Amino acid sequence: MVVCVEHDRVPHSILLYYCADHVLCAPPSLFIFVLQPNLLSTVKNVFYAKYMPISAYFSFDNTGNRYDPSAIVTDGEFDVAKYESYSPLFVSSTLAMAYGLAFAAFTSVLVHTFRKFPPL
To answer: What is the distance between the alpha carbons of residues 104 and 33, in angstroms, rounded to a whole number?
Structure first.
């Protein structure tokens, strides 16, 4: 059953939720379906994404295997010599975008909170 309603008869709160839903869903879709495959994988080869899976939740070493963090740590401390002899860290394009969006979201929450509620 399809229900058609004229917009002037719909309460404004329902229209607000409808618009908010589209505003919140459009940017992630843009990142996932447009920016991530085109820019990161095929066009610019950022983060060497051509040589890795497009979506993986773990990081890689220079041979394509899972990165082993214990190989670069000595007594709980980062060891530069071991890092240079082992491999730099390679991440998939989806993981790189997830980290970038997460840092952007945390930063925006802090900025908007301090702008809206300045400290006394």
So the answer is: 19
Cα–Cα distances in angstroms (integers) from residue 92 to residues 44, 72, 104, 114, in the given order: 14, 20, 18, 34
Evaluate if pTM is beyond 0.85: no
Distance CA 40, CA 45 (A): 6
- 11, 17, 18, 23: CA torsion to nearest 10: 140
Q: Per-10-residue mean pLDDT for the chain, 120 residues long? A: 49 50 62 66 70 86 93 95 94 83 90 88
| Amino acid occupying residue 99 | Y
